[in-house]
């Protein structure tokens, strides 16, 4: 296979994995028009249409699907082979794609970005911030971070850090004006800040443990958000009661400063926290293995 032919196939795989020409072009560091021309040359050389293009989406034709299913694993094997050779020099290299929610980014990854780059300067770490649940394989990621209760089946999982818990919080002024709820059921008489998980239609029901049994409470209030750090900021301004994961990044400073007060703590026990997960495969690329081992070491030391 000549270099030009491989470049065309690499461009084709990038378009399929990214879902559109703009993101694929950014990944390949070329213009969208150049990428379109490259795909056109590939289709002309093969004599078939590989992609169905509309103004809003790009999808595979049947010949395109057959080519993608056969070539993508081969391309991955070639990348692994190159990385294996570089591993002989003791320096893993290549791109590692990690998908994770915003809160996991803040607590599980951001504190160690500098140390990881210093140790592995030849690895390009791509972070995909996705609060909506996605299949990491279909989305083209190597690894993901999610809560233990949301782990996908048939994945290898590594626990990162301790268990976590959610807390209801409100500003001192709000509690002085409207009273302090004593049980989860009391929330029905309060202004609550609702959360809609990205990608979901229904509002999230707040979860508490009562007499050893988990219950869900549907609440009402003047504000609905898709990111719970916004809910915390609104609660600090007296909008109502928020319910969010305890974190040293967002919640803890607001509690320590006195802008938020925890409530219903006895009904909020810990549960399995964050997990790094990745698919079972015959050979894990060295760069991916380097990130796995690095995060394992960081969280053992923390």
TrEMBL record:
Task: Identify the residues that the record assigns to the HTH lysR-type domain, covering every copy.
Answer: 4-61
Keyword Protease (UniProt): no
Extract the Pfam families matched here.
HTH_1, LysR_substrate
A Gene Ontology biological process term = DNA-templated transcription
Annotated InterPro entries: LysR-type_TF_proteobact-type, LysR_HTH_N, LysR_subst-bd, WH-like_DNA-bd_sf, WH_DNA-bd_sf
Question: What family name appears in the similarity comment?
Answer: Belongs to the LysR transcriptional regulatory family.
Question: What protein am I looking at?
Answer: LysR family transcriptional regulator
Q: Which organism is it from?
A: Thalassospira alkalitolerans
